[in-house]
Amino acid sequence: MEQFFSDTAAAVAAAVLVALTVWLANKIRNYRLESKLMNALPTNGVGISYDQFGRPIDLTVQLANKSSAMIRVRKLVIVTDSFPISFHPDGSVAKSQNPLDNEIRAEKFPRRVIIRGSIPDDEVAGSMILPPLCLGIWKTDSSFPMNREIVVSHAFIVFEYPNLLGQSTLVRIKVEGKKFALVKERVESTNNNAFHGIVDPMIADAAGLAVRG
What are phi and psi of 113, to 5 degrees? Predict the structure, then answer.
């Protein structure tokens, strides 16, 4: 009987040790992956599209997956003092491999193990699956530019990624630092200039327009 209890205790201890090891490995891996998602927005990743008259019609944002896992970008939103500005994937532009193009020219190219995980096909409206080292483009809907001045307070991106436990993790990343400063400057200046009828001089020259202001 003592041997039975001893064997049972050893088996339970081994199971707990394995579970703890898997949990710790998942925790470390998720931390590393999320640290890469913090850099999903390139430093030059905010652009502006204009119509033939030099008027802004939407903003475009590039998001890059620099991790080794398949991820889904579930939501991109910029919070203003008026209304939030939502984005959706630009279906007219194919996903690119710009992050891979940058790495392939580097002196050293690290070996990567691609983690397929449990991300299903992209069935969620307004979301996009990004394979490792790929880039996608999002653009605003018809609500931009707004018919008022705005002040941008925050920018958030929601990602979904597979974890080692066979589940998916949903995480919200806040855009901060120089990248948020870029988002804030581009969004506010583009919207507020459009509201006051001010056209960018370079765009106006290209369109052959007279600049106001």
Answer: -100, 115
